[in-house]
Design brief:
alpha+beta; disordered N terminus; Butyryl-Coa Dehydrogenase, subunit A, domain 1; 47% helix; Butyryl-CoA Dehydrogenase, subunit A, domain 3; 3 domains; four-stranded mixed β-sheet; 391 residues; Butyryl-CoA Dehydrogenase, subunit A, domain 2
């Protein structure tokens, strides 16, 4: 009986990418991120540096000016950002949001926008999907786009739309056929690519004050007129245009969680060696040592699932199960590592100068977004294990 051969070594290119990202991150240390967090400021300088270095155009094919790398390499990029103490959420959408245009857009849309996204003159890092009432049930969105001749008029609301005020364009999901008039609830939803630089007050963004600074907003859309050419893919098929991109999003979110987890473990291990209480380093105590070790073991297992998901994505294989499970495992492992770091640092963990509390808050959010871990378990139960649909 033969066996499947698996290569667990990173390629020379992947290691070069890792070191290249680390060099940029070294210029934007934890103090930079602490100040951004305290002032609720978008990390503009860091994002510009990542764009200029070409890291955020990693997934754009070379023919459109990008690096033409795979999701495996993109995952390494974001892992390193978070492992350095930063937050890849500030810029990760610039990497994958364009995927809907790349895979489903017209050739004219690709030729017009992808090179600009690749060179950084255009930012597409905002996506309007979630709504106040619909939540995770995207089929129940009420934002509506009415076709009138050669254009659409869009009205509605979106919530938790991140980076809108730091993006030149937005991918907006809206119904073009009412829910009650479609034979399948996932139909009748369309995707639009909208330039927000010249729409006046047709979209009004109200920032939402949140636990972590991800520049998220409530959007009010009032009689927004967009040309028919803004439609991505076929009318009524927009949900399917973003679904394949959601696997990419979940894998990259997993990579960020892995980076967070490694940062927590590294900080906890270092502090456990340095901190002396009762005449001995606290890391000598199994009550401190074992939680860190357990978190690390779970993190390493989760990382393996993340790389498996990325590899299958890059090979064009179905990876919904792996992408979802990676997101679940990595976010839970990062949170466990964060808890271990909080316990190890004790009272100092809540002092902002140690940066633990900031990263701890960020890692907790990863269990809710970009998808709730309970919904991941529901997906696994229904679609992977074949159990009855729960909702």
């Amino acid at each position: 009986m033969g066996c499947m051969r698996m290569n667990f070594e990173f390629s020379e290119l992947q290691e070069d990418i890792r070191h290249g990202v680390r060099e940029i991150c070294a210029r934007y240390d934890v103090e930079y991120w602490r100040k951004c967090d305290e002032k609720n400021e978008y990390p503009e300088e860091f994002v510009n540096a990542m764009i200029e270095a070409g890291w955020l155009s990693a997934l754009i094919p070379e023919e459109y000016g990008g690096a033409g790398l795979g999701l495996s390499e993109a995952a390494i990029i974001l892992e390193e950002v978070n492992r350095s103490g930063g937050a890849g959420t500030a810029c990760h959408a610039q990497m994958y949001t364009m995927g809907a245009v790349l895979r489903h857009g017209s050739e004219e849309q690709k030729q017009k926008y992808l090179p600009q996204i690749a060179n950084g003159t255009l930012r597409l890092q905002s996506m309007g999907v979630t709504e106040p009432d619909a939540g995770s049930d995207t089929t129940k969105i009420k934002t509506f786009a009415e076709k009138k001749g050669d254009h659409y008029i869009i009205n509605g609301q979106k919530i938790f739309t991140s980076r809108y005020q730091h993006s030149d364009m937005i991918l907006l999901l809206a119904r073009t056929t009412p829910l009650e008039k479609v034979d399948k609830k996932t139909k009748g939803i369309s995707l639009f690519l909208i330039d927000t630089r010249d729409i006046g007050d047709a979209i009004v963004a109200n920032p939402i004050d949140t636990m972590v600074h991800h520049e998220t907003n409530m959007l009010f859309i009032n009689d927004l007129k967009v040309p028919a050419s803004a439609l991505v893919g076929e009318e009524g098929n927009g949900l399917y245009c973003i679904l394949d991109g959601l696997n990419a999003e979940r894998i990259l979110a997993s990579a960020q969680a892995v980076g967070d987890g490694k940062w927590f473990v590294e900080q906890a291990v270092r502090y456990s060696k340095e901190r002396v209480v009762f005449d001995r380093p606290i890391g000598q105590n199994q009550g401190v040592q074992f939680p860190i070790s357990k978190a690390y073991a779970n993190l390493m297992a989760a990382e393996t699932m993340m790389h498996k998901a990325a590899a299958k994505f890059d090979q064009g294989l179905p990876c919904g199960a792996e992408a979802n499970m990676a997101k679940y495992l990595c976010s839970e492992a990062a949170w466990e590592a964060g808890e271990a770091a909080m316990t190890t640092f004790g009272g100092y963990a809540v002092a902002k100068e140690y940066h633990i509390e900031r990263k701890w808050k960020e890692s907790r959010l990863a269990r809710n977004a970009p998808i709730s871990n309970n919904l991941v378990l529901s997906y696994v139960g229904q679609h992977v294990l074949g159990m009855p649909r729960s909702f």
